[in-house]
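Quick question, first post here. What does this chain look like in 3D?
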Amino acid sequence: MNHLDRCGSNEVMSWSRFMRWAALTAVWAAPLCVTAEEAASKTDPAPGGTVIQTPSGSRLVIHAKSVLYDFNDRVALFEKDVTVTDSQVLLTADAMSVYLTAENSVRRIEAAGHVVIKELGTGKQATAGRAVYDVSDETVTLTEDPQLQETQQGFVTKGADRILYYRAKEQFKAEGENMQIEFLIPEGKAGKGGGLFGPTGGNDKEKKTP
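> Answer (accepted):
Ran it through. Tokens below.
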């Protein structure tokens, strides 16, 4: 009986140790598993480019084949296949200078050479030889054969010396002696009939009620 009791006692103690060991293993294994997952995620390649914050809190992601940063003037010069994106705009150009504040926030952007600016989710697109974006008043100044179009509303501006686009107000101002602004009816929305003061279709007599 004593032998059986001892055996039974040893068996109970062994099982108890096993359970204790299993519990400790589970406690230690859990954080190790999480750490492994986090380590795996960190090995994934991060998106390339330069990330700069704007005063509004959004981020500019800039890609280019060459970047020169001037610590004294706090200016970054991007060259060769420059592409800039934020939550609202896609910009491409041959070269671009980004002027930073003391807090590393964008205060001014100057783009030059085959500048194309597209406002995401809308029909707005601007082209120019040079574009300057002033962050403080959200104004884009286009020069060197600037053009601005809005396909959804059907207008095109060209031939101006300078075009100012106010992003916050969604307004533009064109300046120049030879500028041309066309307000077109978007495709598929044109009605039938004559000109501005002519009938738009149908017979006037038919429109009158008896």
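The chain has two helices and 13 strands.
Helices lie at 2-42, 204-207.
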